[in-house]
Every structure is written in structure tokens, then in C-alpha cells.
Amino acid sequence: MGDMDVEAKGIDQKEKDLNDWLPITSNRNASWWYSAFHNVTAMVGAGVLGLPFAMSQLGWGPGVTMMVLSWIITLYTLWQMVEMHESVPGKRFDRYHELGQHAFGEKLGLWIVVPQQLMVQFGVCIVYMITGGKSLQKIHDTVAPGKPIKTTYFIMIFAAVHFFISHLPSFNSIAGISLAAAIMSLSYSTVAWGASLHKGVQPLVQYGPRASTTAGNVFNFFSALGDVAFAFAGHNVVLEIQATIPSTKNQCGRDNILISLEKPKGLIVIANAFVVIHVIGSYQVFAMPVFDTKESALVKQMKFKPSYSLRFISRNIFVALTLFIGVTFPFFGGLLSFFGGFAFAPTTYFLPCIMWLAVYKPKKFSLSWFANWFCIIVGVLLMVLAPIGALRNIILQAKDFKFYS
What number of H helices and E strands is found in the chain? Predict the structure, then answer.
């Protein structure tokens, strides 16, 4: 009996040592405003820049309806996740997959949550790699017109920053970057709508659906649903961010709007610089849970020793992979709507509702039961329809695309 107690204590100590090393749980002394910075950085993302194009494809009625509905659903599911974070007395679910394991079981929870969450975080990092590179290119083309440089090089310049700052150990260590990113996200969003309001309606610009066929307009409508879903992000890192604070006792182009603006030049340069700073921080916020998952698996499953060299190699591989995919397939619009529908819809719109039903088991046909099933139906429709339109747009863009141009 004594030997078993000693062995159990040894396992507990190993688990504690690992949690003290992993980026999500290494420091639980963050202030609430650190959490606020990270959440704003994650949620007010570059996805908002695709909303004007999405609205033009959806039309005013469906567009406004989709925006309001998404806001209500995602606010509700975000509340659910925060409530379930400490739903078991004396226990915290510091990672999305831990909550999934509590709701669905140890093995099934991992298989349901981890692939979806990694797809979202990996996909966001790719989109932000492209966004940062294109914003750098826009700054260059505005300041020095007539000297074209390949988009690939600008994405590589953006990636170079992450080969350095990706080695900051935890969420708390990127708090300064996240604060700057949060301020920049609010700033460029304001510039985007302010500049559009000042410019007003242009006589030669088509603001409605622009496909030449009914089928094309339908596919673009589906794709726009994914753009909206991508803009309502952040759920995939909310528990990981929550883990860093102490426990409580209870013609519009098919690109982002700032790329499509042409003047005034000074404002364009400043706004795109804001975007670059924001996506640097947002990339890190979404990458940190990936680092946590990878490093945990390398130590637990592959028996590597926790070390700086392990962290250095694994994180550089991740940045290099997102760089490679970003420069190979720089389709901002298509990727936005594809990941928005296929990956964000499950983890943001309906997976928290399924967990809520599994954990709290509300009475059948009660208000809570109806609310959760409504969110699930909307989320599943988004997950099915949005990628269909997005894939069509990616295929159309790929027809005339030259790799690494």
C-alpha cells in the first residue's frame, strides 16, 4: 500500500512538473486585464476585414440577420464555456479538450475536440500569415509604387518575426504583444469603417452579388456565411486564456477591405501597419495552445524530456509549416470562408452547446434545451454550406494562380 502511495505521488509530481513547464499552465497569476488583451486580440481578428465583402454577397436582409444571429449565438456559447470552466468543484478545465473529455469521456472527448481545435488554430495562423504578408505588400506598394515584389517575399518577412517571438514561453510572456495587438485591432477596424463611410457609395462599384449566374450567387452566398463565422472567433482559446488567471472561488475585391482601399496613402499605410501588428499578436495567441498540445504530446506520448531545445525545434517547425502553406496557397478570401465554416462553426457555434447538454442535461423541451438545439442546427448548417462555396472560390482563384508569385 505504501509503495502504491509513493508511486501515485511520483506520477502526480511529474504531472505538476509538466504543467509548470507547458505554456498554458506554467503561470496562473495573470491579471484579469491580461485575459482581456488576449481575448480582444483573438476575437476582434482580421476576419472583420472580410465582412464588407460578405455583406455584399449576402445582401442587407440576410447579412444583418446573420450578423445579429451570430453575435447572439457566439455570446451564448462563450458564456457556456466560461461557466463550464470550473463546473466541477475543486477542478479546472484549462483546455478545450479537457472540457470535451469531461463531457464525452476521456478518449471520445479527445477525438471530438482536438482535431477540430487544431484545425482552427492551424488554419487561423495560416490565414494570419497571409494577411500579414499582404498588408506588408500593400504598405510597400503604396510607399514605393512601380516596384513590384512577390507576395511570397512579404509573407516570408512576416514569418521571420515569428521565428523569434514564438519562443516566448507562455501566454503571460506575450501580454505586451497582445496589448499592442488588441489596440491595433480596434484601430484598424475603426479606420476600415471610417474610411468606407467617408468614401461613401461609389457610382461605378457594384455592392451586391456580382456572379453572372444564379448558381454562382448561391455559392458566393454560402461562402459569405463562412466569412461571417470566421469573424466571430476566439472560443478556441478562451479556456486556455482563462487558465492563466487565478481560480475563482465560484466591387469590393475578394480580399480584406484595407487592401482594396487606394487613398489617402498615409491612412492606408497606417491602417495596414495596424493590421501587421495585430496579426503578429493574434498569431501568437492562437499558436500558444498548439505549442501546448504539441509539447505535451512530445513529453507524454513520445517520452521526450522537457527542454528548451525541444521547444525550439517543435515551434520552429510549426512556424515553417504555416509559412510554407501560406506562400503556396495565399487565398485570403477562400481560406477565410472555408475555415470559418468547416472549423469555426463546430467549435464556436455548436460544440459548446452539445457539451452543455451532456454535462447539465437540461429538461427536454425546456428553454435551455430549445436554445441549445437551435444553436446546434444553425452551426451544422454553417459547417455544411460554407465550405461548399469556399472550395468553389478557391478553385476559381487557383485557375490563374502561379505558385510562389
Answer: 16, 0
44 Rama sector, left if φ>0, alpha if ψ -120 to 50, beta otherwise? beta
Residue 68: all three cell numbers together: 445579429
- Under 8 Å CB-to-CB from 23, ≥6 apart: which residues? 169, 170, 171, 288, 291, 292, 295
Q: What Å distances lie between residue 147 and 130, 155, 261, 357, CA to CA?
A: 20, 17, 19, 57
Whole-prediction pTM = 0.85
DSSP letters spanning 141-188: HHHSTT----HHHHHHHHHHHHHHHTT--STGGGHHHHHHHHHHHHHH
Q: What contacts 293, CB < 8 A, 6 or more positions away?
A: 95, 97, 114, 118
Judged by DSSP in three states, 384 sits in helix
DSSP string, 292-329: HHHHHHHHHTS-PPP-HHHHHHHHHHHHHHHHHHHHH-
What value does the mean pLDDT take over residues 123-129?
89
Closest to 88 (Cα-Cα) out of 372, 360, 351 = 360
CA angle 303, 306, 312 (to 5 degrees): 110
Beta carbons of 280 and 165 less than 8 angstroms apart? yes
Distance of CA 40 to the CA centre of its chain: 12
> Rounded to whole angstroms, how far apart are CA atoms 13 and 16?
5
**Contacts for 163 with CB less than 8 Å, ≥ 6 apart:** 316, 319
| The residue type at 245 | I
Supply 365's cell numbers: 423541451
Lowest mean pLDDT among 26-40, 254-268, 286-300: 254-268
* Sign, Cα dihedral of 3, 5, 7, 13: negative
- For cell 469603417, the residue is 193
Task: Choose between 43 and 76: higher pLDDT.
Answer: 76
- Which tens digit of pLDDT belongs to each residue from 218-231? 888 988 888 888 88
> What is the rounded distance in angstroms from the CA atom of residue 328 to the CA atom of residue 404?
6
Q: Is 262 helix (H, G, I), strand (E, B) or coil?
A: coil
C-beta neighbour count of 43 within 10 angstroms:
22
In whole angstroms, what is the distance from residue 102 CA to residue 359 CA? 8
Cα 278 off chain centre by: 13
